[in-house]
């Protein structure tokens, strides 16, 4: 993951008496310290910008340095002619920074810094309105807690945006049959995140042929490690399929390394089931454990969304869930999937190797007559989580949050957890209102998840990327049509 490059420029005017040099120098020191704790690269412009020509020289310097985000500190009041110059910087986003006036309660205004960014924000919003330039404002000194929190959100959001535009994504085997809600036009993805690489032409046979090429002695240690990392078997039918899992895992690992992919979406059925009565779920979980984002059922937009979450969370491990039940008694929803979740989500109690019960047809009235391994059977630890998925024509975003409950409430075999304290777009929401919002918006049936509360970071990512949040649709008994 590449670091964000932040450029810092100081602007001023000669007519204010505050010690501008000392104020800016202190802020540079503070930003240098933050660059280490927040993990970004800092580029400081060595001169103070007083005139429009000064601003032009600073912008040229920062463009040469290939910065991603330009922080313009108005150390004191700054000429309005500089605003369009900074606003039109190429290939970088913009922040305007004001500092406090100090503790004096009378006498001359030492800096007039806040008024200055007020004017420049107004110039960009109104005089340059047709350019639609997003700008984020900052206030305080670099060691102020509110300033640090505000900058942290920006660093995480823009780090994710920078890296998603440089990522390599693949679809292997196409979208799972009938899952047409997961179909997306790749041109929308390319346009939204210019620079992203996407390959939809890989076939299932590439993985199958590679998997069958290995000798048993190459595979046995991988299978043994898979068993060792688990807490045993929840279904003995899975035991006979572990060697197949090891083959498929090795094949995907080599395929990903050869093509340098950051994320892949795989069609996990029906070909695996037809060929081997096998489920690739546990391999999906293991690859996510090891740092390559893998989404099931050929869901490319979820693979990209999982990768965004990974970047926002500083490299943490995402997973992909269905929504399988809701409970109005405790206002919770069950996030469940066949068994592809990463071990990151069950560190307390671990997982067992089991079977996927939904991948093959069962004989009528005879119970579970068809089971295909290997899946990860786990209940998630009680942690806060965030959900993000791109939707629409890659122009909208779904965002929810919550907290997995303590294990104990009934749930179905697979990877699962009941999620309570639900939020939607950062606002509290009941389970039925959330369900209604999902269904009335025609939102796709997949929910990319990351550990932690990243509500603000997701909102900021959406704002910089030009994504529109889906709107809440409170439950009602009449037909609700969303335009």
| Rg, nearest Å | 26 Å
| Helix content bin | 25-40%
The coarse silhouette is elongated
By CATH reckoning, the class of the largest domain would read Alpha Beta
Kindly report the average pLDDT value: 96
How would you describe the overall organization of this protein?
This protein has 483 residues and is α/β, with parallel strands linked by helices. It has two domains: 161 residues, Rossmann fold (3-Layer(aba) Sandwich), CATH 3.40.50; 302 residues, L-fucose Isomerase, Chain A, domain 3 (Alpha-Beta Barrel). It is built from 14 helices and 19 strands. Strands 10-11-16-15-14-18 form a six-stranded antiparallel barrel. It has a five-stranded parallel beta sheet with strand order 2-1-3-4-5, sandwiched between helices. β10 and β11 form a beta hairpin. α5 crosses α14. It is elongated. The model has no long low-confidence stretch (mean pLDDT 96).
SSE blueprint:
Blueprint: E1 4-11, H1 20-37, E2 40-49, H2 52-64, E3 69-74, H3 82-87, E4 93-98, H4 113-127, E5 135-139, H5 145-164, E6 168-172, H6 186-192, E7 197-202, H7 204-212, H8 216-229, H9 242-259, E8 263-266, H10 271-276, H11 281-289, E9 293-295, H12 300-312, E10 319-327, E11 332-337, E12 352-356, E13 372-379, E14 384-391, E15 396-404, E16 415-424, E17 427-428, H13 431-440, E18 447-451, H14 455-465, E19 468-469
Parallel strand pairs: 1-2, 1-3, 3-4, 4-5, 6-7, 6-8, 8-9, 13-16, 15-19
Antiparallel strand pairs: 10-11, 10-18, 11-16, 12-13, 14-15, 14-18, 15-16, 16-17
Helix pairs in contact: 5-12, 5-14, 7-9, 8-9, 9-11
């Amino acid at each position: 993951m590449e670091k964000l490059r932040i450029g810092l420029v100081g602007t001023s005017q000669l007519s204010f008496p505050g010690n501008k040099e000392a104020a800016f120098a202190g802020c540079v020191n503070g930003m240098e310290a933050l660059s280490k704790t927040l993990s970004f690269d800092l580029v400081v412009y060595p001169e103070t910008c007083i005139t429009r020509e000064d601003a032009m020289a600073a912008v040229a310097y920062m463009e040469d340095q290939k910065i991603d985000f330009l922080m313009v500190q108005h150390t004191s009041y700054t000429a309005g002619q500089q605003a369009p110059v900074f606003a039109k910087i190429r290939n970088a986003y913009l922040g305007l920074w004001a500092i406090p006036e100090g503790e004096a309660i009378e006498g001359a205004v030492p800096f007039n810094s806040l008024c200055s960014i007020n004017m420049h924000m107004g110039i960009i919003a109104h005089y340059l309105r047709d350019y639609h330039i997003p700008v984020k404002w900052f206030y305080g000194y670099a060691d102020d807690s509110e300033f640090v929190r505000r900058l942290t959100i920006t660093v995480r959001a823009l780090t994710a945006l920078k890296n998603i535009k440089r990522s390599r994504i693949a679809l292997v085997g196409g979208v799972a049959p009938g899952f047409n809600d997961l179909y997306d036009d790749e041109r929308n993805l390319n346009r939204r995140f210019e620079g992203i690489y996407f390959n939809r032409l890989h076939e299932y046979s590439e993985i199958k042929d590679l998997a069958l090429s290995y000798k048993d002695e190459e595979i046995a240690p991988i299978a043994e490690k898979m068993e060792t990392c688990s807490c045993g078997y929840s279904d003995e039918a899975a035991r006979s399929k572990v060697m197949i899992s090891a083959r498929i895992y090795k094949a995907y690992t080599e395929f990903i390394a050869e093509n340098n992919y950051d994320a892949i979406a795989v069609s996990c059925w029906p070909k695996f089931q037809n060929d081997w009565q096998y489920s690739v779920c546990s391999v999906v979980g293991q690859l996510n454990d090891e740092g390559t984002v893998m989404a099931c059922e050929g869901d490319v937009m979820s693979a990209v969304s999982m990768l965004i979450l990974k970047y926002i969370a500083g490299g943490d491990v995402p997973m992909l869930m269905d929504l399988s039940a809701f409970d109005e008694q405790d206002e919770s929803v069950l996030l469940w999937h066949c068994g592809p979740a990463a071990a990151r989500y069950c560190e307390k109690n671990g997982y067992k190797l089991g079977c996927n019960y939904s991948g093959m047809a069962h004989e009528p009235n005879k119970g579970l007559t068809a089971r295909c391994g290997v899946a990860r059977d786990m209940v998630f630890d009680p942690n806060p989580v965030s959900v993000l998925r791109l939707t629409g024509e890659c122009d909208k975003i779904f965002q929810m949050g919550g907290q997995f409950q303590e294990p104990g409430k009934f749930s179905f075999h697979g990877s699962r957890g009941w999620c309570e304290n639900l939020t939607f777009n950062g606002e509290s929401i009941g389970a039925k209102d959330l369900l209604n919002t999902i269904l009335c918006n025609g939102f796709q049936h997949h929910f990319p998840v990351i550990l932690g509360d990243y509500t603000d970071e997701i909102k900021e990512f959406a704002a910089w990327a030009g994504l529109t949040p889906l709107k809440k649709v409170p439950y009602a008994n009449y037909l609700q049509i969303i335009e």
